[in-house]
Amino acid sequence: xxxxxxxxxxxxxxxxxxxxxxxxxxxxxxxxxxxxxxxxxxxxxxxxxxxxxxxxxxxxxxxxxxxxxxxxxxxxxxxxxxxxxxxxxxxxxxxxxxxxxxxxxxxxxxx
Length: 111
Fold this sequence. Notes:
By secondary structure, the chain is mainly alpha-helical. Helix content is 66%, strand content 0%. It is built from 4 helices and no strands. It has helices at 9-15, 28-51, 55-76, 84-103.
């Protein structure tokens, strides 16, 4: 039988190149706390858009949304547990995307 057909997690990792270190599972309480933080930040965004429509509401949304995205990326998509090189590549791609999107504000000002 070929080595890649062996059973077990070690054989699976070896068959696919391995490279991922095992990390401790994240406690459920951490996910609940992140979820509560996301709900609170959503409430802040909605409240700002209702009470301060226009420039202030958009400004608050532009500050809160990247924070929410970072929480989702770090905890729910497990970016926190990736290697530094992978995080740097991912964040540089997101940074370039943000730069390109930000440059579009020179054509039309939302604030």
